[in-house]
């Protein structure tokens, strides 16, 4: 019976002979029967498997999905039922936030023979306290602080940056873990559990029980070298990959055009790099709002670039400012390591010798008392600090230096330092450990930064509503803009003309944290990228290597709009602009606000994208510890459903009866057909009749 309709659990249909017959007669009805029995879960997000040079992390189910009896965990003591005393293992454990802790998850991992999987119910508001599934020392093996650089600074010996980090994101679970939105799905689950599974007064619950099945089978195993080898084998036979390198595209632009065709060292060029990261992550793939960890930084940098547009065009400082937005930094600095690699290999319009200094904007959304901390490297500090402090004083921001012996926090700048000692500063809102209590988690969202709007506002009004957070970030952006200008050698008299626009900051925050599909971005995004606009908050999880994901495309176009200028030429001429040779043009169309017909226009800007793929995949060398080796496994199906199961004995009994009935009917058929001559002789003409 199961083989006839593999998606339908046998016991419901084979429970009686008549059901069996009915089922065969109505052979077409597999699906409609399936729908009556199963309730599919709609808003699920899985944890997926990632691999590096030596390990696999994440979660997976068996090929046919893991099935377990539902158990809603009420407290840590309640784990005993799952791991030891419950009579119907394996269990599918339903958890809520306070119980999604390292201690409980590790106990479940240890008892995985009795655990079929875990479903985490996402609360509708952020948990009190903190929650970070990331490690307490992010990117500890890929930054500059190795044993060789300075043994006293390696492995966060000096400062533990993310003390709340539980490291759950880096564990390997051999059962699936899904997150469920707290809505009708979870209501159905709770009801099913209460009605069928909850032990009442210590008695064991009786069949049928409510069960859940989760599918998230992962194709790749062991580590990156293994799965890349399998990719190569598969490639020669049939193109079926098992894993893909993590990566995306970086975005960069400059305060004055750089010849993009001429790669490598440029004589007479000296650049100040202004950097921010573009990505974040969380335990579950595809829910990474990264509000404080990434958005606060790159929105500030975009606003600073905008503030610098006039000043850098009217009174050009003699150094160029290079705006760089790095992707994949959560996974051992994929984007920045690629930029440094390209500079070393003369694949970038500049090389390392062209870099004057680096100013990186880290997490700046949670300042207390207007304080910003200027982090430097104890081994390579120089004059940038003075410039920053000078402009900070004018703005009533206090820019303070932490303890001089403290190393840099995890930052892209470390990848530059790894190459050579360049002066640089990393701006943060924390002195030592992170202020961010939700680092690299799904709760690092706009609620955490108090970006809320009065409820009566329409979406259009929300887009323009300047929140306190937007004001605070505007202030930081003004400071960053002025410091960059000064650092680039600009005149002090221009500084007062450099002011970030709080309207633009608030529009950007709305676009990244509420919805990118709004009237402002619709005008800025070129017609061929309009598909990147969405009605939900942006997901900053880097994903697998692709030309340009949603965040990359948006930042690329925004940078063009905020630093470029509109050319009054026809579309044809715009397309004919010599983009590569002169490196000035970047074309972006746009639509007028409320017309259905999109009218393109031509924008001259220096905003560009370039590959953010780890050099390890360029060189096919996964033993080189210098580069990120993270890959993501492929999968075929990710889904979940709940249904009722009968006891194993009943299943076996039904199957037995079914087989018995089948054999009896086969025997009967055989008997009847072999004796047909006798049985049906009267109804037949004699075969030897002649006429
Ligand atoms: C791979 O990831 C694991 C788990 O986080 C870590 O222990 C290990 O050091 C990493 N290996 C490399 C080569 O980075
Ligand atoms: C893991 O489970 C075994 C029994 O299955 C137990 O003896 C051991 O203490 C557990 N380890 C941890 C770390 O809980
Ligand atoms: C959830 O259930 C309620 C009542 O049962 C219903 O009104 C509502 O539309 C459902 N929501 C969704 C998203 O299905
Ligand atoms: C999921 O969506 C389908 C179709 O929209 C609906 O029939 C089903 O009830 C939903 N599942 C739950 C658990 O709400
Ligand atoms: C850019 O560099 C290329 C190659 O070196 C050169 O041919 C071209 O003339 C340069 N363009 C400008 C505008 O300098
Ligand atoms: C740049 O200059 C133009 C006019 O020259 C002015 O309208 C605009 O507000 C200035 N922008 C900024 C950001 O100062
Ligand atoms: C920039 O100008 C300053 C003086 O205005 C000069 O000292 C410095 O050498 C110049 N730098 C470059 C790269 O030309
Ligand atoms: C958000 O609001 C709460 C309560 O008003 C306040 O305690 C907290 O400091 C605010 N956070 C930010 C980032 O403004
Ligand atoms: C930027 O977008 C605005 C619309 O919001 C438009 O008016 C302006 O011309 C654009 N500027 C550039 C340089 O693309
Ligand atoms: C754009 O150029 C056309 C002719 O080339 C001219 O008629 C028109 O006035 C220009 N528009 C603007 C805004 O400069
Ligand atoms: C666009 O809509 C606004 C208000 O929604 C209106 O004032 C304006 O006239 C409209 N513009 C066009 C070109 O239709
Ligand atoms: C990979 O990189 C390591 C470290 O740089 C080097 O020793 C090794 O020879 C490289 N292997 C290959 C196959 O290039």
Automatic annotation (TrEMBL):
Per UniProt, subcellular location reads as: Membrane
Position of the signal peptide: 1-30
Q: Give the way it sits in the membrane.
A: Single-pass type I membrane protein
What Pfam families does UniProt report for this protein, alphabetically? Ncstrn_small, Nicastrin
InterPro entries assigned = Ncstrn_small (IPR041084), Nicastrin (IPR008710)
User: Cellular component terms, GO, for this chain's entry?
Assistant: plasma membrane
| Residues covered by the Nicastrin small lobe domain | 46-220
Sorted alphabetically, the keyword list is: Glycoprotein, Membrane, Notch signaling pathway, Signal, Transmembrane, Transmembrane helix
Record field: transmembrane: 652-672
**Record's keyword annotation contains Membrane:** yes
- Give the start-end ranges of region Disordered: 575-599
Q: Does the keyword Zinc apply?
A: no
Domain of life per record: Eukaryota
What Gene Ontology terms for biological process does this UniProt record contain?
A: Notch receptor processing; Notch signaling pathway; protein processing
Q: Which family does it belong to?
A: Belongs to the nicastrin family.
Listed PANTHER family: NICASTRIN
| Name the UniProt record assigns to this protein | Nicastrin
Question: Source species, please?
Answer: Echeneis naucrates
**Taxonomic lineage per UniProt?**
Eukaryota, Metazoa, Chordata, Craniata, Vertebrata
